[in-house]
C-alpha cells in the first residue's frame, strides 16, 4: 500500500450532490407554484408589502436626520422575510447591517432594530430575549459567532439552529471561509444565507470572485450549495426552511446563495450612479419581489381588494408608528458609553469613565 492509498487524504464526501443547480431555483410563475399553499402566499405577500414600506420609511428618516445611516434592502425583501420565517422561536438569527428588515420580521420592534443606525447604542434590543444577534457592521464577523453558538447548542443537547446572513462582499472576508470550514468539519446546525445583490459597495461581483457562483464555494468545504432566485419569496422560504430542517436533524450546514439586486444605493451616503447604469437598475425593477408575488396571487385568483387593502393598511400603520416614535428625541446618558462593555471594567475603562464624569460635572457647574 502506498502513501496515496491511505484513507487520510481522501475526500469525505462525493462532490456531485453538493453542487448547486445551474440556474437559480424558482417557484413563482412556474408550474410548481401550483402546489404552494394559498395561506402561505398571502402571508408572504403581506410581509413583503410591509417590508417595502419599512424600507421606504427608514430611508425617509435618514433624509430627516433621524437616522445617521440606513443600508436599504429594497428589492431584497424576499430573502429578508424568508430568513425570519424559516426560524423557530428557539433558533438564532445572525444578521448583517443590511438585515434590519429580517430582524423586524423576526419580531423585534422596528425602533429597536434601527437604534444602532441611529447612533444611540451598539444594539437597541436584547439579543437573548429575541434570539437575534446584534447587527454586524464589520463584514462577516457574525458568521463564526453563528457557528460557535450552533456548535455549542448541539454539544449541550439544545434543540437550536442558527441562520447567518451575509452579503456577496462578505464572502471575500476570511471570517466567511473560517466559518464555513468550521461548520462543515463539525457538522454544526447552521445555515449561511448569502444575499448576492451584485455589488460590495461599488465593487461588482466579477471583481471579487472567479467562481461559477457563490453557491459553488460550498463544495470546497463539504456542504451543499443552493442557488436560488432571491426575489422569489416562495422559493426562498422553501429552500431556507429545508436547509434549517436539515441542520436541525443533524445533516450539517448549507450555503444558500440568493441572487437578488440592491435597488437603492449602498447607503444614503453612497452615489450608486458612479458605478452602475440606470438601465441595469430598471431591468431589475421588472423582477421586483412584491410584483412577482402579486402576479402569482392574481393568476391564482387570490389577490382580492381585501388582501391588497389589508396589507397596505398594516404597512402604513407600521410606518406611521415608526415615524412618530423615531421623531421623539431620545434621552441619552453619556455614561452609558461605559456600560455593558466588560463584565468587570478594565482599569483603562474606569479611568476614562472618571475623566468623562469629571468633565460633565465641570460643565454642569459652569
Automatic annotation (TrEMBL):
Q: Does the keyword Oxidoreductase apply?
A: yes
Q: What is this protein called?
A: Pyruvate dehydrogenase (Acetyl-transferring) E1 component subunit alpha
**Gene behind the chain:** pdhA
User: What cofactor does this chain's UniProt record say it requires?
Assistant: thiamine diphosphate
Keywords of the record: Oxidoreductase, Pyruvate, Thiamine pyrophosphate
What the entry lists under InterPro entries is as follows: Alpha-ketoacid_DH_E1_comp, DH_E1, PdhA/BkdA, THDP-binding
Residue ranges annotated for the Dehydrogenase E1 component domain, each copy included: 55-321
Q: Which NCBIfam families match?
A: PDH_E1_alph_x
Origin species, per record, is Actinacidiphila polyblastidii
Amino acid at each position: 500500500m502506498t502513501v496515496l492509498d491511505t484513507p487520510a487524504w481522501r475526500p469525505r464526501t462525493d462532490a456531485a450532490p453538493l453542487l448547486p443547480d445551474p440556474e437559480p431555483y424558482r417557484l413563482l410563475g412556474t408550474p410548481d407554484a401550483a402546489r404552494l399553499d394559498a395561506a402561505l402566499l398571502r402571508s408572504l405577500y403581506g410581509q413583503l408589502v410591509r417590508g417595502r414600506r419599512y424600507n421606504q420609511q427608514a430611508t425617509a428618516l435618514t433624509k430627516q436626520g433621524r437616522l445617521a445611516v440606513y443600508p436599504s434592502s429594497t428589492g431584497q425583501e424576499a430573502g429578508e422575510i424568508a430568513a425570519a420565517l424559516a426560524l423557530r422561536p428557539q433558533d438564532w438569527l445572525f444578521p448583517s447591517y443590511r438585515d434590519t428588515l429580517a430582524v423586524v420580521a423576526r419580531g423585534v420592534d422596528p425602533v429597536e432594530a434601527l437604534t444602532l443606525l441611529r447612533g444611540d447604542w451598539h444594539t437597541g434590543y436584547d439579543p437573548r430575549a429575541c434570539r437575534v444577534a446584534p447587527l454586524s457592521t464589520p463584514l462577516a464577523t457574525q458568521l463564526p459567532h453563528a457557528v460557535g453558538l450552533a456548535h455549542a447548542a448541539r454539544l449541550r443537547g439544545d434543540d437550536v439552529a442558527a441562520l447567518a446572513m451575509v452579503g456577496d462582499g462578505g464572502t471575500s472576508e476570511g471570517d466567511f471561509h473560517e466559518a464555513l470550514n468550521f461548520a462543515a468539519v463539525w457538522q454544526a446546525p447552521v445555515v449561511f444565507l448569502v444575499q448576492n445583490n451584485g455589488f460590495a459597495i461599488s465593487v461588482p461581483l466579477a471583481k471579487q470572485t472567479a467562481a461559477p457562483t457563490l453557491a459553488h464555494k460550498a463544495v470546497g468545504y463539504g456542504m451543499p450549495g443552493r442557488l436560488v432566485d432571491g426575489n422569489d419569496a416562495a422559493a426562498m422560504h422553501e429552500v431556507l426552511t429545508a436547509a434549517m430542517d436539515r441542520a436541525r436533524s443533524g445533516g450539517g450546514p448549507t450555503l444558500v446563495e440568493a441572487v437578488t439586486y440592491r435597488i437603492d444605493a449602498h447607503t444614503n451616503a453612497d452615489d450608486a450612479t458612479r458605478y452602475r447604469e440606470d438601465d441595469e437598475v430598471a431591468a431589475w425593477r421588472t423582477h421586483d419581489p412584491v410584483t412577482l408575488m402579486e402576479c402569482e396571487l392574481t393568476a391564482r385568483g387570490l389577490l382580492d381588494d381585501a388582501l391588497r387593502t389589508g396589507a397596505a393598511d398594516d404597512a402604513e400603520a407600521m410606518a406611521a408608528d415608526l415615524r412618530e416614535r423615531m421623531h421623539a428625541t431620545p434621552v441619552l446618558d453619556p455614561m452609558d458609553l461605559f456600560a455593558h462593555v466588560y463584565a468587570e471594567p478594565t482599569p483603562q475603562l474606569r479611568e476614562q469613565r472618571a475623566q468623562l464624569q469629571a468633565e460633565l460635572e465641570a460643565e454642569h457647574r459652569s
